[in-house]
Structures are given as C-alpha cells and as structure tokens.
Amino acid sequence: MTRRARATTGGVTLLAALAALAVALALSAGIAEVTRTEVSLARSRRATAAALAAADGCLARGLAGLPPGWSFDEALAGTDGVGGTMDDGLLTLPPGCSGRAEATPAPAAGPAARPRLLVTVEGRADGGRRVVQALLGRSPGPGLPALAWLGELPPTGVITGALVLDGADRTDASAPPWAGLAAPADPATLDAWLTAEAARTTRTAVTQAPFSGAPPPVTALAARLQAAGPAGAEVLVASGIPTPARAFVATDLVVPGSLEGAGLLVVGGSLDIRGALHFTGVVVAMGGVRIAAGASLVVDGALWIGAPSVPGSSLRVDGRLELRQDRVAMATADGLVPLPRVAVLLGLRDLG
Amino acid sequence: MSRARGSGLVELLAGTALGLIVLGALTGAVATGARVLAVAAGRGELEDIAHIAVECLTFDVRRAGYDPAGGGVVAVTEAFGDRVTLSADLDGDGAVAPDSEETVAYVCAGGQLSRIVGRQSMPVADGVSACRLRYLDASGASLAVPPTGLAATDRTRIRAIALDLTVSAPGLAMPTSRTTLVSLRTPP
Questions:
Q1: What pTM, to 2 d.p., does this model score?
Q2: ipTM value for the complex
Q3: Which of B11, B16, B26 to mutate to test the interface with A (most CBs of A within 10 A)?
Q4: Which has the least CB within 10 A, A124, A222, A328, B135?
Q5: Distance between CA atoms of A65 and A249, rounded to whole angstroms?
C-alpha cells in the first residue's frame, strides 16, 4: 500500500469515528433534553400540588375561623365588621393566601334557604398558584358536637367534686359521639386541662377528645330568646315531667332544691346550684356555673358557658356535674329558639 | 521497496483493527444511548399518563356535588367497580345538564380509562392493565360494590373515591401504578 492509500484509509476511519461521535452527542443531548423536560414537569407539578394544598389548607383554616352563628353577615362585613366598606367580604387567612366571600343567592324555601357563603381562596406556594371556590353553609345540627362549650378555659383545680362526660347519644346509639369539651384554646391546652382534672373526671370510652372552638355566641342567643318571649325560672319544676320551654333569667339563678327542666334555659348571670337540677336540653350560663358541694347538675343535651366578666370564674364544681349527649333534646331546644351553628363546607371546585 | 509494502500491510491491518474496535465501541455506545433515550422518553410519557389520569379524577371528584343554587345535586349518580358518574351544578342554574361538563363519567374498559362528557369520550390513559374504582364511607371502610352498582342509598354513604390504576407501555419492562383517594367535598 502506498502512503496515499494509507492516508485515505486512516481518513475514512477518522470520519466514521467522528460521525459516530456526533450521533452519540446528539443522543446525549436528546437524553439531557428529555431529562430536563421531565424535571421541569415534575417541578411544575410539585408547585401546583403545593399551591393546591395551600389553598385547601387556607380554606380549612378560614372555615374553622368563622364563628358559629345564624348567618354569614360577619364574614360578609369583612375584617372591620362594617358593611358597605372596601373590605367587605375580605377574609382573614394565613400568609400565602388571600380570599373573599360573597353572598350566594338561595331559594326561599328548603334546606338550601339556609344562609350560605361563596368563598374564593387563592393559595400560593413554591411558585405555584391555585384558586378554589367553596360553598359554605351552616351545619344541620345545632351548636358544636361537644357536651360543654365554654367561652374560656377555666384554670385547673376548679373541679373538686366530680365531672362526668358521656359523649354517647342517649337516644341513638349509632349517632356519632360528641367531645367532652370545646373552648377557645389550643387542643394541647385542652388536653392538659382534662389531664389535670382526670382524678375527678369520668369520661366514657366513646367521648371524643376536646377541640378548639370559638366562644359560644351567648349574648346573641340571649337576645334572640328574649325576642321570642321567654318564660322565667318557673319552668323549672320540682315534680312531674317538665314541658320543654324557653326560659330566660336575667340575673343569677340559684337552685336551692331539686328541680327539673327542659328546653332552653339561658341565665344572664351565674347559675348557682345548691341542690339538684336535671335539665333536658340546652343550658346557657352567661356568667358561669357554680355547683356547691353535695349539689348536682345533670344536663342531657349541652351546657354552654359564656366568658364571665371575672376571668376564671366560668366553672366551679364542688359537687357533681354530669353531661350526656341527647340529640332529641338539642333538636327540641333548637325548635324553641334557633341555636347557632358552625360553618361547614357544602361544595368546592377548582378554578385553576 | 518490498519491505516498505509489507510494512504498509501490517500497518493497514493494525489500523483497520483499531478502527473497527473504536467503531464497535462507539456503535455500542450509540445503540445504548438510543435505547436509554427511548426508555427514558417512554417512562416519562407513562408517568405523565398516570399522573394526568389521577389529576383528572381528582379534579372531578373534588367538585362533585357542587350545588350553589341548592338544587339538590347528587354527587355520585353511578358507582360501579369500573365506572363512576359524577355530577355538579357548575353554572349555578339549579340543574345538572347531562351533556355538559356538569356530568362526567370515568370508565375503565378496553385497556383504557376514559373520561366521558355527554357523547364525547376522551381517553385519559391508554395501556391500562389494571383499573379499579373503590368507594369509602365516613369510617374509611370500602363499600361492597355489587355487579349492578351501588344503590342510591349506598351512594349517599360515599365519602371518598379511590382509583387503583396500572398502565404499561410497549418496550418498558415495568408498568406504572397509582392509587389515589379523593374525598368528596360535600356535607355528609
């Protein structure tokens, strides 16, 4: 072979090698591009999922933050509580979210005629953004699913007698059990309070753990009750089966003997039990409850205590306080005067 | 002169051999790269398919029962092991139009998971080798689904819908599986 022939062969080999290298480089670039695309898609999906989770979380927080009541007028009035201003419908939500509420037209009759609220929440997280629209309403059941709904958590040591909490429904064994306690405090504090009072507290096995909740709107409830024309303390009877009734006592109520009652009892001052009171329905004590040693208060329904003017005086149990769930009694009380209800989610849709 | 020719032949053979080795290695590398590229692209597409299917179902289940006008919308109007129909009043007119986005069905059939809106059927996942819908009540227990589907009273007990989905693609040894559980956003 001549030098020229060898040079030609070497050149072909080099060209073939370079061509193969070029193909390999193109393939490598393709793999890199596919990887880059997939990574970009994964990032986008993660951001979208994080934003949706943020929107869902903010909606849940906003829902929990709406106070129990009869309507959504407070939410519609905005953060300043005054209607017809710029912040109407503006919701207070955690950082990373914004939201507005608006009234939704509803039929004049039927379940849908209950107050409802249309809430639009935008959640942002990890560079993503999602918007959800939720339809809120008031729960079908009155009050909170708790035996005792307190305006403030009393200090520990207020129970020297006995506290009995039975979350099982007396009238329907299949009904979901209630919590023993709801108050505007974080769950850990509520747990700690019950633990501190555990030696003097009996909770049935089905009774649910306490949960946080806004204070009961006792002032608004008292106003509604007064507007409905209530009776007084005379509805509490010493013997016989009491007739469910609306009862309002503007001042302190002292129960010296053994009495029974049913329906809705609202006490503007404190409820002072020195004998025995068995009530079937809802007892509201705006100024707190005191049960003397040897006395007892049994409520088949719910006990709501407003935040009294003197902090820490909402509850004192030297005798016996027994609370049992009774949905029929709650419904009866609700029929006498509509009770406040918590806000619930009725529906949701993603707007993108 | 003849020594020069013999020397050239040896050089040629050695050079050719080296060239073939280099070419073989490069060809192998290129072939491997091509296979990796195809598998990576196929895997990515398969993951996309599964993800999109889950996203679609999640989107529709979340809004099922949306009823701004209070017309009494039933969130789940059909519930089979391989088919579910969801309803929502999206335009707030108090009614659910059967031939619009307000009525959406998901059907597992023929190796596909399809999203059906009115008469329009859109496959959201091809190459489906396993597809099952489950319905959970408030306690998280699965409701037993008879061949005729859940009765109306049982459908009102549905609080969440689960989808078990497995999709595969030619050329990929491993299929991709997803299980998603989506809660209804309607009151119990």
A1: 0.78
A2: 0.75
A3: B26
A4: A328
A5: 31
